[in-house]
Design brief:
It is a single chain. The chain starts with 7 loop residues before the first helix and ends in a 10-residue tail after the last helix. Helix content is 65%, strand content 0%. By secondary structure, the protein is mostly helical. The model has no long low-confidence stretch (mean pLDDT 91).
Length: 74
């Protein structure tokens, strides 16, 4: 079995878990963490779109493409 050492951020989150007493508090913390990562993903996606000149028109064009891979006769 492989042992993984926790990094400082993980240890910090675990230490905060000591203050969670109910499932509701656990859910609230989970929602906060999910919101943080959603915002982070949104920022990265926006940055990617700007760096690559991807417009809404580009996205619409991609959505309308029907590229299929031909696997030949099997």
């Amino acid at each position: 079995m492989v042992t993984t050492q926790l990094n400082p951020a993980q240890i910090n989150v675990l230490s905060l878990m000591a203050y969670i007493n109910t499932e509701q508090e656990q859910k609230e913390l989970q929602d906060i963490l999910l919101q943080y990562y959603r915002k982070k993903a949104d920022r990265l996606l926006l940055q990617f779109q700007q760096e690559n000149n991807i417009t809404q028109q580009t996205l619409d064009d991609w959505a309308e493409q029907h590229e299929r891979t031909s696997y030949g006769n099997r």
